[in-house]
Amino acid sequence: MAELFTSASLFAIVLTLGAYEFGIWLQKKLKSPICNPILIAVILVIAAISLLKIPAQDYRAGCETFSWLLTPATVCLAVPLYEQVKVLKKNLPAILVGVLAGTLVSLGCVAILCRVFAMEDAMLASLLPKSITTAMGIAISEQLGGVPAVTTAVIIITGILGNICGSSLCALLKIRDPIAQGVAFGTASHVVGTSRASEISELTGAVSSLSLVVAGILTAILCPVLYSVL
Amino acid sequence: MKYVYQATIIFAFTLLGELLHVLLPLPIPAAIYGLVLLFLALQLSIVKLEQVNAVSKFLIAAMGLLFVAPAVNIVEIWKDIAPVLLPIGVVLVVSTVLVFAVSGLVTQWMLKRGGKDNG
Fold it and tell me: CB–CB of B106 and A97 under 8 A?
């Protein structure tokens, strides 16, 4: 009986899908951006596995049956990119300058704040690549001597933050152009932000996809340089 | 069988991405190689849009779901980050909001400037 909850991946899958589905339902019901499906699902899953005393490792192992889909899903971002290629080409300089500015602010801001809070070097290395997609961020963090598990966590929290606050920030700062919105989502909050940007419009999603790729590459180049200077 | 066909193409490009990731000594993940390759294939009409469109749109829409399991990992590293939770929280919130604002506003400013030049 106990094995049904620990060793079988079906339980992990049903729990994850159910929690996410509940998050979507709650978001529709309450219409509040705080009710983000990812956030709700994470809270529900943590509560459920704590109550049932299932080790988080076992839960994650159970989810492996579909977690690998993240790589092909990211590959699929090529499709909206292709569909919007004309608009992207036309506005390429603005997009690239926006992403570069955002990436510089990201690295500078993290570096300064980490110094202000007198954090250890390993923590700085773990936090620097926080705005880019997980696989890239982990590689950079490892290269600089950071803790990959911490990097994964901060990358996902950053993504969820962008996903939740993005639309309100756009309204507050009067970022109304769909291209500018896409750059903001993709540069600040990688794939998780892009999933929100894709809901706004195809164009916003496509710009966000392009931005996350460019931001990832820029961060991979700039991170080691900045880290050696610090 | 349309979906199996589309999924096969997408997974094949993912596999190519994994291959490049293993072969090339760059810190670029397989997903980004695969994305660039699929984009080029679409541009060069090696792959047609309707050969990948439906499954791609499904996977993109389902992407948020795929982040739930990795995020639950926070439970495992809780001990490591608990003592510095507040500073980390400040770093994350401040930098994310700043990056979002700067990248969005700079892009919008560039677009407006470009618009003026054209018209």
Answer: yes
User: pTM of the entire structure?
Assistant: 0.85
The rounded distance, in Å, linking the Cα atoms of B97 and A116 is 18
Provide, as residue numbers in chain B, all residues whose Cβ is less than 8 Å from the Cβ of A147: 77, 80
Provide the token pair at A17.
Answer: 């899908």
CA dihedral B43, B48, B52, B54 (to 10 degrees): 110
pLDDT band with cut points at 50, 70 and 90 for residue B55: very high
Q: What is the pLDDT at residue B119?
A: 40
pLDDT tens string A8-29 = 688 899 999 999 999 999 988 9
Q: Which has more confidence, A34 or A188?
A: A188
- CB contact set of A133 (below 8 Å; sequence gap of 6+): A74, A155, A190, A191, A212, A216, B29, B31, B32
CA of A87 vs chain B CAs: smallest distance (Å)? 12
The whole-angstrom distance between B12's CA and the closest CA on chain A is 9
Of A19, A136, A189, the CB nearest to B27: A136
Residues of B in contact with A131 (CB under 8 A): 95-96, 99
ipTM associated with this complex = 0.89
> What distance in Å separates residue A1's CA from the closest CA in chain B?
23
